[in-house]
Amino acid sequence: MFKFSTLVGALLLCVALSDTAHIQNKRSLVVSSTEPPKAEADKNTIPSVPSVPKIYEMRVDTNVSNRYAKTVITSKVKNLDSKAQEATFSIVTPDQAFISGFVMEIDGKKYEAYVQEKEEAKQTYDQAVFSGHSAAHVAVSARDSNRFTVSVNVEPESKAIFYLTYEELLLRKDEKYDIVLNIHPGQPVKNLEVKVNIMESRPLKFVKTPSLRSGNEVSKNSPNIDPEAEIQNVNETAAVVTFSPDVARQKVLGGSLGGKEQDGLSGQFIVQYDVERDPQGGEVLVDGGYFVHFFSPEELRPMKKQVVFVLDTSGSMFGTRITQLKEAMDSILSELKPEDVFSIVEFNTVVKVWNVPLSQVTFTKGDEAYFAYEPTTERTKPKEQHLPPSVPANQENIDKAKKVIKEWEANGGTDIESALKIALRVVAKSNNDKNVQPMIVFLTDGEPTVGNSVPEQITSAITELNTHKVPIFSLSFGDGADRAFLQKISLKNQGFARHIYEAADAYLQLENFYKQISSPLLANVTFKYVDKVKNVTKTHFPVFFKGSELYVTGIIDPGFIPPPAECWSSDGLIQLKPTVYNSVGSLERLWAYLTVKQLLEQREIAEDKKGPTQEALRLALKYSFVTDVSSLVVVKPNASSAVSTEDASKVSQPGQYGIPAIPLSGTPGGVASYSLGFSGGSRKGSFRRGYVSAFRRPMKYGSLLRGGSAGGFASNYYQSSMMHSRYPAPIPPVAPGQAWFAPPPHAYQFAASKLTASYDADDLIDIRHEVDSEDGVYYSTPRLPLTSTTTSENPLFNLLPWLRQNVVGQTLLVEGVSYDMDGLVTAQPECSNSFNTTNGICTLLKNCPQVYPDLVDFDTYTKHACVVENHAGVCCPKPVQVEP
């Protein structure tokens, strides 16, 4: 195991933050030292096992005014042991929130963090990495959230107090605001209290506390997890909600949420409320030279809509994913209104537009994958193409669409650009009525692997073609989807992106997403602020949906009069005049928050990022917001530590794959965080006549591997035009210590001597009988930590983009073993896993360009890979001999 030196008062720090689209852009925390470290303890001393530091009080105080929430979390801990002990403060924050303050009080002295430009903090960060200290973290999981963790040594019989502050603008969804407070102390707390103070300028319509949630599943209210919170209505515009379960109640609630009772409460406490609102142009609140316009008209008839569903059925959707997609679409189609029209576009290697009334495809683009290496197979001459228009959402068409979707199978690659281009053609062909709101609902679980596979080029092409500004709402399904890419497509095309977590409730997540966009009330909403106003946020919105809310804020001069909103409704062009009210509190931080959020969005899609980056940074530093362009610097004596980031929707390594908890500084209070350089762990495996049988861990059919979605032949189907059928390739159960296949005498074994870095024996982290929770397969294998190496540009990267993630220098990295990709190779061994299912020649990848179109991702490559003279090769098909 790794060896750590003891530092008295060592501070180890980790922050987990993501941006508004759940993209893993890193926001960092850096710890700097104000005093020299004390002498190290004797490395040979065997530490005792102290008790866990006790959290004797935890408070969560949230103050909401004008829909803007500021939350302060206070945690007080005491070390009851006779030796110094590490105390961990771990908080899960909403993904839309900005951390704006952190203070530690140790031995009566307070240490206050401050925000700094990220590059300025990098020197401290790099020094921390160089010194070898890791960040501690705890295994807490919650969707759409970020994890903030700090660990600090506490002297015997001493106390430490942590204060964390974060801020967010509450978004209205489904006609309510949700205040989501994550409570994960990791132990029962004697004094646990949550208090939410709501003060609004408008009368409160309702205030309620639904059942507690685990944070990882869409669940219904249950009496077993009713928080039994106290709700006090102070007056018509203010309320106080208090939740203070005793230790016994915490244990019961923790067990009901799926945890262990001895770990106490671990879940989300939620307060929901809404306000009485102006039925027409909304409310404009003014205070101290700032204004905010809350726009959510209600007395409007929903617009008719045209929905084009663009749905991924590539190989990686096989199994549970496509089943859940079918279940969700069955419900979503039932939600369509009779006056709506809709289309179904299915895509994998081939894009297919379904003529729903005929229950058949009448327009396709692309060739089935099996034609690529069977040139003797006669291709069917294409019939006359007919692009079907969108069809009315009557019961007959809905029933036929459901039946069509139920018969879908998952196979092939992922042609995203063609799918979206054809969807725009469908919209253009069908939508000639200004009173009909078109929209594209686009779902994929992978990356582009067929046709154009460069995300930037695809985004530009779709945006340029979308001259009518049709909103594109993107759904990324599972961890394999390129979430940043989908976010950019949607932001540049009047929509937004959401992530669908791969779990048992994925179909419910899809249904809930559709409900948010199912009732468009207005289109092209424009707020024309011209006089006596400056620094205004976004003023044009392509669609306003029922149950949501639009926000505009800015800085005003005396005499400001808000103009009416101009928008298109089911009755044509209308103007809606707002009502002005005095704010119940300051609006300055609300303006700063929303301005920074929108600047970061602009930065994501801008060609020149300098302008929005600089302005976002200026405001982040002024208002102490931790963002993608700013870092939080914590000063603490005797400490300097690196920072990692993590998405709180995952329980990240260690612990995720059975890595034992490694004590930091000789104490068991924290878990060491290692950058392993790969996902899923190291696996020993074997080749079968050049076939790579265990490059990655065993996966379920169509599951994603590092490097992209499964596509083409990666769907675990054997396709043949000769057989006209598909045969699933089952993955047998693997017992501990067993390989997938027994290697024949001439098979190659992974060579441990070819690791990209050298390690001492103590550096091995042994894993005993590791369990993969997804497929129930057991392993018993060591895991090696990898060091990163600068990757030189390889000309193959442009042809095979997925290589970038798997190449180090000029070697292909496979489970910690590197194979040369270039060099002189004289052998030409035969192999049996070529694309044309006949014998081939094991050839260097660069020398077999004919397979490039079908090498859509790393998964596909491993199915046709081989080794020749310790070089990574591919089983290149032999030329097909055609009889004269």
UniProtKB/TrEMBL annotation:
Species lineage: Eukaryota, Metazoa, Ecdysozoa, Arthropoda, Hexapoda
Protein known as: Inter-alpha-trypsin inhibitor heavy chain H4-like
SUPFAM superfamilies in alphabetical order: vWA-like
Keyword Signal included in the entry's annotation: yes
Pfam families attached to this UniProt entry: VIT (PF08487), VWA (PF00092)
Endpoints of the signal sequence: 1-20
GO cellular component assignments: protein-containing complex
Start and end residues of each VWFA domain: 306-517
Domain VIT: 39-168
Keyword annotations of the record: Signal
